[in-house]
Task: structure prediction
Amino acid sequence: MIEVFKTNITDKTRAKSVRKEFLVRLPKSYINFDLEDCDRILRIENCTVHT
Result:
């Protein structure tokens, strides 16, 4: 499953910090930011779906 979120994160340092926090909770996920996109996208790809 891939989830895409619009964020208000504007700098790489903050993006790295947030990514590290997500990886603690979702260790097997692929997480990245696209800060060049106008919506500063956060993408999370995870094979496990929690309901």
